[in-house]
Amino acid sequence: MNSSKKLGTVSxxxxxxxxxVLAKNLSKQNYAVHVSSTRWQxxxxxxxxxxxxxxxRLTGAKPVIKEILESEKVFFSSDCFIxxxxxxxxxxxxxxxxxxxxQEFLQRLKASNPTSQSQSKNIxxxxxxxxxxxxxxxxxxxxxxxxxxSIAKPCLCAGNEERADSQSGAYLRQVERLFxxxxxxxxxxxxxxxxxxxxxxxxxxxRS
Length: 208
Description:
alpha/beta, 5 helices, 10 strands, globular
């Protein structure tokens, strides 16, 4: 875009396959993009595609270094947040850890958006700016429907998301509700059924 004025600010939590591509394309669309990773080694790479890149670990441990605190302050001041952090299923106890991480994110978001006070005719008004959150979820929250002896696929019907076949799908639905029930944010849930792209070939999912 020719205009130097940014359309808005977007913070992307998780710079994996999807998060990094989103950061790159939103930057091209003239958004001010902040992106987070859990690995210091990726910061130099991510700063090429985003305005800022930070290390963000949602484990309950708060940063104490001043520079990191300032970076997090900028990250959590965005207009919109896109959560691209899937459950790490290979880790022991991932279900409770994932829920705790998302709770930690919401707590930090709330803390970064304190009540503001304005005066009008000697009356104090207290307001909070509602930030938008887009949570990237999965069709795993839906129960599957058997379409042949060997094939079943998610049945994408309203209400069917409460009957996930897998335990991980049930925990993911629990995290969705955590966001949807948070009063100080505007939430959109995007459920993806698989990502295809560089080094992600659909044929490998069909191997027996």
